[in-house]
Every structure is written in C-alpha cells, then in structure tokens.
Design a protein that fits this description.
The chain has about 230 residues and is of the alpha+beta class. It contains eight helices and ten strands. It has a single domain, classed as 3-Layer(aba) Sandwich (Glutaredoxin).
Length: about 230
Amino acid sequence: MQELTALTRRAALAILAATISSPAFANHPGENLDARMFEMEPYFQAIDAAQAPGFELQDSEGNPVRLSDFSDKVVILHFIYANCPDICPLHAEKIAAVQASINDGPMKELVQFISITTDPVNDTPDVLRDYSDRHGLDPSNWVILTKRPDQTENATRVLARDYGLEFTMTADSDMMMHGAVTHVVDIGGRFAAKFHGMDFKNVNLILYVSELTNNAQHRRREPSWWDRLTGVFQ
C-alpha cells in the first residue's frame, strides 16, 4: 500500500510538471502581463495588491455605491473635481475615449468606469449629473461619486490619498494641486495597476484591461494546477 501511495504521488507530480510546461498552461491569458505592459508603456505602474482601497460613497441621486458592487468587473477609476480648470477635464475626456473604444466591443459588460469628486461641497448633484454630458462619458457603465452626508468634507480626498494621490487645497483659491492617475482594479478587487499622467497610450490601457478580462474568463473556465494535482488523490 505504501509503495502504491508513493507511485501515485510520483505520478501526480509528473502530471503537475507536464501541466506547467505544456503550451496551453504556459501561454494562458495574462501570463507576464505586467512585464509586457512595462515594456510597451512608460507610464504604466504595476501595483498587484491583494485589494484596492474600498469605499462606500454615493452617486448624484444619493444611491449608495461601493467598490465591492463591481467585484465581477474590471474597474477603471480616477479622481476629479468639476471646477478644475486644466487637467481634470482633459483626464475625463481621455477616459471617455478609452470607454468609447471598450464599449464598442464585448468588453462593455465587464468594465466599470468610476469618477470620484474630491470637492463634494461645490460638486452638487446637479453638477455631477451634468458631468457626463460635458465630457462625453457613457452612463451605462460609468458613475460619478461623492461623499455620503455622514462623511467629512475631505472624505474623498482621504480616499484619493489611500490610492496614492494627493489633492492639496491652495491657500488663495478653490483650486487643488494634484496629478492625474488612472487606477485599474481587477475582477475580484485586486489593485492591479496605475497609468500615470496624460501621455499614456489609450490603446495600452485598453489592451491591459482586455487581458485582465480574458484572464478572469480563463480562470473560471480552466481548473488550476492545484485542482489538477489534488484531483489525482480523490
């Protein structure tokens, strides 16, 4: 019996080695995605944190919205404020162009776009409702969020800081000093990556998101190597 068990375990290890080295396993969608994107896009930063900072905010109609509501989708998230005179509108329009390309194909149902205002005092519900029309965003898979009534005025700026982005109030105006970062949250809530600034190529963000969605579909479709290994002993 011990000899049989040893042979069975050796057979399982052989199956595992063959599985890992097989072309189907080696070329699965998403393999080395971050490394490939780093070579293609100088403004790409891999994060690969187990979970992106969570939140519970509200939309322009007062409905509660959580990041976890979109755990079955890739989330493209950025921070803005409506009165920003320079980078915010340009960033929103860049996101809108990416969204238009994604929504032109089958990925539309797998990707959610989120804008979060860091100026909830001035960005009233009417201002937020007008934002999509001004910048060409499609509300079918995009939402703009603000703080809840029970949260402090700087709640979304604190959230931006959790994502590694500072919005700093200037002393002599209502403007805020800040950068532009596009955050990508993978299906399941993993904080996947950031695309920095305004000069990244839209197509690279689209390709990155496409690979994430393909990888998620592959994981649902194929058993893992652990499933294959443990199945031998069942």
